[in-house]
Amino acid sequence: MGGSTFGRIFRLTSFGESHSKAIGGVIDGCPAGIKVDYDLINKELLRRMPGQSAITTQRKETDEVEFLSGIFDGKTLGTPIGFIILNHDFIPGDYENIKRLFRPSHADYSYYLKYGIRDYRGGGRSSARETASRIVAGSFARMVLHQTGLQIIAYVSQVGNLMLNKNYEELDLSNIDKSICRCPDAETSEKMQLLIEKLKSEGNSTGGVVSCVIRNTPAGMGEPVFDKLHAEMAKAMLSINGAKGFEYGSGFRCASMTGSEHNDIFYSEDDIVKTRTNHSGGIQGGISNGADIYFNVAFKPVSTIYQKQSTIDEQMNPVEYTPKGRHDTCIAPRAVPIVEAMAAMVLADFYLIAKTNRIRD
Amino acid sequence: MGGSTFGRIFRLTSFGESHSKAIGGVIDGCPAGIKVDYDLINKELLRRMPGQSAITTQRKETDEVEFLSGIFDGKTLGTPIGFIILNHDFIPGDYENIKRLFRPSHADYSYYLKYGIRDYRGGGRSSARETASRIVAGSFARMVLHQTGLQIIAYVSQVGNLMLNKNYEELDLSNIDKSICRCPDAETSEKMQLLIEKLKSEGNSTGGVVSCVIRNTPAGMGEPVFDKLHAEMAKAMLSINGAKGFEYGSGFRCASMTGSEHNDIFYSEDDIVKTRTNHSGGIQGGISNGADIYFNVAFKPVSTIYQKQSTIDEQMNPVEYTPKGRHDTCIAPRAVPIVEAMAAMVLADFYLIAKTNRIRD
Amino acid sequence: MGGSTFGRIFRLTSFGESHSKAIGGVIDGCPAGIKVDYDLINKELLRRMPGQSAITTQRKETDEVEFLSGIFDGKTLGTPIGFIILNHDFIPGDYENIKRLFRPSHADYSYYLKYGIRDYRGGGRSSARETASRIVAGSFARMVLHQTGLQIIAYVSQVGNLMLNKNYEELDLSNIDKSICRCPDAETSEKMQLLIEKLKSEGNSTGGVVSCVIRNTPAGMGEPVFDKLHAEMAKAMLSINGAKGFEYGSGFRCASMTGSEHNDIFYSEDDIVKTRTNHSGGIQGGISNGADIYFNVAFKPVSTIYQKQSTIDEQMNPVEYTPKGRHDTCIAPRAVPIVEAMAAMVLADFYLIAKTNRIRD
Amino acid sequence: MGGSTFGRIFRLTSFGESHSKAIGGVIDGCPAGIKVDYDLINKELLRRMPGQSAITTQRKETDEVEFLSGIFDGKTLGTPIGFIILNHDFIPGDYENIKRLFRPSHADYSYYLKYGIRDYRGGGRSSARETASRIVAGSFARMVLHQTGLQIIAYVSQVGNLMLNKNYEELDLSNIDKSICRCPDAETSEKMQLLIEKLKSEGNSTGGVVSCVIRNTPAGMGEPVFDKLHAEMAKAMLSINGAKGFEYGSGFRCASMTGSEHNDIFYSEDDIVKTRTNHSGGIQGGISNGADIYFNVAFKPVSTIYQKQSTIDEQMNPVEYTPKGRHDTCIAPRAVPIVEAMAAMVLADFYLIAKTNRIRD
Q1: Bridge-partner residues for D215, per DSSP?
Q2: Is D144 near chain B, with CB under 8 Å?
Q3: C218 φ, ψ (degrees, to nearest 5)
Q4: Is the ipTM, as predicted for this complex, more than 0.90?
Q5: Contact B262 A207 (CB under 8 A)
Q6: Which of B130, B280, D39, D160 yields a CA-CA distance of 20 to 30 A from A49?
């Protein structure tokens, strides 16, 4: 089993520890004949890459993806696309001090309980390093969806207690990558940056929220009952390192609303079915209705902070621990392309599944 | 594909529309030799059943489950457990008025777009009627987990803007089923009931939040990367009708916390590893660490309200619509056993998967 | 896990022991909008039914299928099709004598080792009774494939040492159901019937072979490497009770052929690609090429024979055993519709999967 | 979907075309803490490798496997084991002459129909090159099974019309790898070698049969109904390139046997349950009973023969074609380790699944 495969038709199987020779994956079920957009892949990998700005970790991951199979003459063959990204930047000895201890709020302890063995270097399999493979697969998912016109746009809507109090319709989403915090509102972005820099200087970290909107969604994606579109989306998002919550459409706010406020009234305009509001977040009964899909994902503060903390070792002895290494202060800005990649994978999968829902022609 | 199977080892495949002859399911992968606790099953079905109190719908679903296979001499055989629950309470003609229209915020329109055909009676497959099958499977999941001592307890923590501002450790959880709102705090419960009755009298509805805590969790449940315990839990919870959000541990609050606040410090006491806080919600790196798991699920206000609403029909003509039938005003109290059932299914599945993680002779 | 689900997109999950209340299944992933051909279902169930002729078991299984969900106004909804077939014909006490012993070449012993518990009545889950569910699902699979013009035709080609030494192209396949042995060659059929009657009178049984041909197969069905069309077909056929071997195209004969004899030479005629021979059996590299698919399945002699046999009981004591009950002498004639049903399920699944191989529009 | 994943718990996802940069795979679900036996892996890869003897192709595939993840301190981590094998031996231009034509009895045509694009170099994904990944995964499967004492031994039992007329119990199986034909009977092996050399000199090829026996099998492996042990084994074997038939136990011979001949009579000796015969091939009702499992797999003559053949190109024009390159004359000897590897994967998977069949202490 193992947990490293995502999707049913369009499927990524990923592998790799933080400090193994390489990370990588196999994308199977990608339709044949798609022109591979290498620029897209590299652009998305760059957006995820550490060291891209003053506020992200200065750890260098070159993140050059090498494709090993499944592509011919620049097009997908329909066969598995194998790819690797080498792990370079490893200083031996860096991890001697954490070899036998359990870092607070990391996966060290739970992996140890589960497997009786763990790769303590950089978090091993639990490291966010593996998200680079998601970016690669997410890029192919976007290529699958390309002809539908579907757009997936994520941005940072909260850092610490700084919240962007506008919804996606009030924002100029073309600004997102202009801000190193990936917040489309310049004023809020600036404050976020200051907060992150302040916490960084204190050796602390902060949580955040990433919001995502999907436009031009084809209707009919998602399956009834257990594989509802938002249920798979929730799984996809909560599988990202550090994610603690997911809400779509009206989200947790729905709890304090009444039905008369919350119901989205259908009407038609120019022969198109529309709704007056979109608290449903583009999904009804687990199936997309063509309206915008939007959701939020909460990310916890990065667990590696540059302060002395007490913990225990494998023999349950108390020890003190101050991390070395280079980590982000707030993961949200770099989570933006990962949220988009996972959303793309969910949607490409349902898009292909939907081709089997009816016998047409 | 179809979306009606949940789980990998312990699996429920469910079927049934609101007004088909029966709903039911097949539980495959349930270990052999488990004594079937029929009282548990019936108790849980009763807790979900409509018409159980003044505030729930007066629609009568007898919800008597009939087991067809997989049980012999009162024990599970290891073979599939087939079961059905007959659909009785159907008044022909009840649905004539909604046959060709799309009810606001229901699944009518999205199913129609997806399949080109739909069973308009009572929501068809999108009806919450199918959750009775989850209750049955969840009861078997509890039997699988029984020997571990694991406990799953859910309760209502919000109705409308009435929030229970205590966490699970401050509450007497033995009170839950004494309250018809399933809120363990008597004072809040009473207010919730009044609010629900008021909205009911207005033909309106309200959202709510269900909280859940899992105690005595075995460590090592959950898989790395995509099948993290909380990711599967999120999927499970968001697959429940009307769910709009999921958060575990510190949840969305984590966004405004710093790492030094949020990190759970390990220490040992009486040769047991503990953490000073439990913002991790018992899950680190997607794998249970033995501490309490807790999470919240937001439910939207019930879409069927007894007020005149405008909508459109299949020909996009505007129509007016006032529902008949009997529906809950707030789904949260009856969602409590469903949340527990889905949690049990996720955990039983991971519990069995964990048996394959190591070779222990 | 449990083993009771077949297929990826078009999926049957079956349940039921020989003497449980009912057997049945859930078909999920069947496309929406298909007119249900009840006559086909009933005809196929009748072809499988025991007691249909002088040479089959006189045990009566009424095999009336009751559909519980997934169908509306005579059409598939796209949602799971739940169905049951009640188990009637059970004489209590019939199985007292085999309760604690292991019948030779039955599944009694291996089930006991695996599960520590077994339903000894009529073979429990290992009974061929469950194949009725395959017939139901296979009928829906045929409906899915209907518009392609694909035809699946199976027949008995060997009973004991009586072999039909003609291939499918030399036979009049419209004769199959005219023969109670389901052998399309009248002369051979008559001999087969005599052999079966002779063995029956001796309380003995015999093996046989079922051959199957599939015409008008769409090209492109089957997936590379592990999920080759013939690999799935082999699994499907060997999952039928009593099956011991599978070969397709040239089959085991290929071992003594040379490449120059075996290669199927391509040519074109009237703008259609053809092959001079079809040793490939319509499948190359695991993927259908549009030519006829044909294969053979070997069935062992029925294990229940009406002769005294020695065996052991659960305490390993030697015991003697003479079966009661009513069983076929040769399973091949009644296996014919089951072979067809399983072939239909494999093909419908790959037909739907193939819709996701390329992005067309 | 894509077809490149095998197994449920212990799973290989493989990738790679014959002439892509590399082939490789990801093994997920391998239990943690297993000491990696690199010697075993290399020995098995060597046994599969082309160019290993006078009768196999002189094409050089170095087949050096590089592990990228999932192993730490020489042990499995429980996380995915990613590995690659580089593709070296590629002479550009070698495939210009076959670029647009469909080689007889190859997958060129069916892939082209399915995907509309194909990698024509060396058969692309349909090349037997990918079986090296099966060898790697099969070696890990053997490590999983190691403590059970289970042994998997395959050998060549037929080449052309030369058949080894002894069953596995009459043979000295320690001789297998002493013969370059991998036939344990010296006399037959010599004849086989002469036949292969003769056909090779004629530019022709021949089919063959590989037999396999599995000893010390734990009881209880295999699942009821669809996932019977022999059904999965059949799928596994028929997924190997060139396989045309599978039979286990009495196999196709069962068709001409009577029940009284075929039934395996149980008795006990020294408190061990045994059977007088083993026509069941160690599997009853789809589940292993602890007796030896044995089966045969038929392989077709290699399709690439060094004779001029006529065929057509993509425009359906007739063309003549004489292959270049280096191919085996008979695939059976090199198929031996692949048959073993696939058997190991099936068994490791069921071994792990069986851990979830019962709740024990």
Answers
A1: D151
A2: yes
A3: -65, 145
A4: yes
A5: yes
A6: B280
